[in-house]
Amino acid sequence: QVWSLDWKTGVPYHDWTGQTDYSDRVYIAPAGQMTYTPLFGPQYQNFNLHSLPFFSYILDSVMDCTESSDVEDRVNQCGGMGESTPVPFATYFDPKPIAQDVQAMMAHPVFPNNNGTAITGFIFGAISWRAVLQQAMPTFVKDIYCVITSADGSFTYHIDDGYPHLRGEGDLHDPHYDKYRRSRVINTQTTATQGVTYEMSFYPCSKFMAEYKTTLPVMAAVGLVLVFVFCSIIFLAYDVLMKREFGRKQAVLDTKRRFV
């Protein structure tokens, strides 16, 4: 049996109509074969993806693309990427789960071998921002905040020892380090959707700054100056002693000349 989830209450129900408040289309898209993860387990088997807003948006966009007369290569052009959503999802038994990751949903149409226009299903997936950051950050990186922002909102990861921890929704970095901000823009524009533009902003924190904010350069500079001062003193002392020795020898030579 296909089941859906009331996004507002988290109550599951049997779905035989395919109707949803988030789409004008009427169809059922149950999850079939899938790779289970700790955040998306076997309990979602036969779950109607069309019943949730962040799924229905991208699925409808892909279907609109396949039905468009302006698209020539529907197989390669009609994939899409939607907004990101926290996981795991709310359920009736756990209406307010603790978010462990934020994932951006992706969908690609499936066509029969002899028909490139009649869509029969979807290949569905997700981009885990935690996995992206973990692959991008070396393990020695300490105490960095990454704020990922789109038109739908923002969420924050705290990266410590190369591992990103989701802090929550919103921009939660320390404003004290705003001047050190570094940003990159990711554009997911495709034929199927209008595209979702993500901006990844990185901010350092106290432990990260402590790794690079040190008095060692000052101490090295002072030590170098002291070496120059010491060498200068030695040179001056040598010069004074040599002049004194030269003067003594000159006096002895002058004395000898007087008696010759």
Task: List the main descriptive attributes of the protein structure presented here.
single chain, 5-stranded antiparallel sheet, alpha+beta, 2 domains
Largest sheet: 5 strands, antiparallel
Q: How many distinct helices?
A: 5
Largest sheet strand order = 8-7-6-10-9
- Overall mean pLDDT stands at 85
Total strand segments: 10
Q: What fraction strand?
A: 25-35%
What is the global morphology?
elongated
Beginning-to-end CA distance, first to last residue: 131 Å
Transmembrane segments: 216-241
Keywords: Membrane, Transmembrane, Transmembrane helix
What's a concise summary of this model?
With 260 residues, the protein is an alpha+beta fold.
What does this protein structure show overall?
With 260 residues, the protein is α+β, with helices and mostly antiparallel strands. The chain folds into 2 domains: 3-211, no CATH class; 214-260. It has helices at residues 53-67, 74-77, 129-136, 206-212, 216-258, and strands at residues 3-5, 12-14, 80-87, 101-110, 121-128, 144-150, 153-160, 163-169, 182-187, 197-204. The strands form 3 sheets. Strands 8-7-6-10-9 form a 5-stranded antiparallel sheet. A hairpin with a 6-residue loop joins strand 1 (3-5) and strand 2 (12-14). It starts with a strand and ends with a helix. The model has no long low-confidence stretch (mean pLDDT 85).
